[in-house]
């Protein structure tokens, strides 16, 4: 009897841990966003995650693409490609790719993370240079950070006004990425009314953003943590990105039925 109780206890603990650590996403998940600049339907962006092998190791490979369409492409052409390869268990990034063309401003950069040495090797393919930089412990790139946050922060553990802080490496430098939790809000979408969690990512005031608190993010208040809407007050004008389509979600997508 005692042995049976012990086994049941162990199984309960294992099941509890498995539930706690269950991923918010899976391979095959795909999002499409419609981006508005003011009243103009400026572009579309996609985000897809799939299984891949990197240096013989099974990893997640995320590809994000953005491109201007229609009238917007006549006066400002954007063709962006972002990729991240990260560990399936820890979420730590191994490789980051940024290849962009934004109105003639181009970058072609690959970053290899060496976490055991706390180093990042930045390969600037445009200028044919390779430079190694020091990085912080548990650093994220700008793509892997989104998936890391979806998996590692339970809304039950934070309250309105709390800030989440991540170490991030981007554009050859380390910085602290901060995200403030603003509470719950139900958003009207093309899919229906979606219960959301509202966040305020802190951004750098200057050439792009009007203020440090210019960005607002809504994600679905379910196990998926799907990005529903992003709004930004820019130095010139405003931007809004709405979820247009999705597939391959791991969990049911919660919609409020009136």
Keywords:
globular; mainly beta; YmcC-like fold; DUF3108; 14-stranded antiparallel beta sheet; disordered N terminus; signal; 14 strands; ATP-dependent exonuclease
What does this structure look like?
- This protein is mostly beta strands.
- The protein has a single domain, classed as YmcC-like fold (Beta Barrel), CATH 2.40.360.
- The chain contains three helices and 14 strands.
- It has a 14-stranded antiparallel sheet with strand order 8-7-6-5-4-3-2-1-14-13-12-11-10-9, with no helix packed on it.
- The longest helix is centred in the N-terminal third of the chain and has 19 residues.
- The N terminus is likely disordered.
Give a short synopsis of this structure.
With 258 residues, the chain is mainly β. Helix content is 12%, strand content 52%. The chain has helices at 2-20, 72-75, 144-152, and strands at residues 30-37, 40-54, 57-68, 78-87, 93-102, 105-114, 119-124, 129-134, 163-170, 173-189, 192-201, 215-220, 227-233, 238-247.
Total strand segments: 14
Q: Give, in spatial order, the strands making up the sheet with the most strands.
A: 8-7-6-5-4-3-2-1-14-13-12-11-10-9
Segments where pLDDT lies below 50 for 5+ residues?
Answer: 1-20, 205-212
Quote the beta fraction.
over 45%
Major beta sheet summary: 14 strands, antiparallel
CATH topology name, in short, is YmcC-like fold
For the record, what CATH class applies? Mainly Beta
Strand/helix succession? HEEEHEEEEEHEEEEEE
Instruction: Give the CA-based shape.
Output: globular
CATH architecture: Beta Barrel
Q: What's the rounded overall pLDDT mean?
A: 84
Number of helices: 3
* Sheet/helix structural class: mainly beta
N-C termini distance: 50 Å
**Helix fraction?**
10-25%
Return Rg in Å.
20 Å
Number of spatially distinct domains: 1
């Amino acid at each position: 009897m005692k042995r049976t109780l012990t086994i049941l206890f162990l199984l309960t603990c294992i099941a509890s841990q498995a539930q706690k650590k269950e991923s918010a996403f899976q391979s095959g998940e795909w999002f499409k966003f419609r981006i508005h600049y003011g009243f103009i339907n400026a572009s579309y962006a996609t985000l897809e995650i799939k299984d891949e092998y990197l240096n013989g190791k099974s990893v997640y490979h995320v590809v994000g693409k953005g491109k201007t369409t229609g009238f917007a492409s006549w006066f400002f052409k954007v063709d962006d490609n972002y990729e991240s390869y990260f560990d399936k268990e820890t979420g730590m990034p191994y490789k980051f790719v940024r290849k962009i063309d934004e109105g003639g401003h181009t970058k072609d950069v690959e970053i290899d993370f060496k976490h055991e040495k706390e180093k990042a090797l930045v390969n600037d393919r445009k200028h044919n240079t390779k430079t190694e930089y020091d990085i912080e412990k548990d650093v994220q790139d700008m793509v892997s950070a989104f998936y890391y946050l979806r998996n590692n922060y339970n809304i039950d553990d934070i309250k309105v006004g709390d800030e989440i802080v991540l170490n991030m490496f981007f554009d050859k430098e380390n910085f602290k990425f901060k995200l403030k939790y603003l509470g719950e809000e139900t958003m009207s979408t093309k899919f229906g009314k979606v219960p959301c969690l509202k966040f305020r990512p802190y951004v750098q005031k200057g050439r792009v953003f009007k203020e440090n608190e210019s960005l607002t993010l809504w994600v679905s208040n379910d196990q998926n943590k799907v990005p529903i809407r992003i709004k930004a007050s820019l130095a010139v004008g405003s931007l809004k990105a709405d979820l247009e389509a999705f597939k391959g979600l791991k969990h049911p997508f919660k919609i409020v039925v009136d």
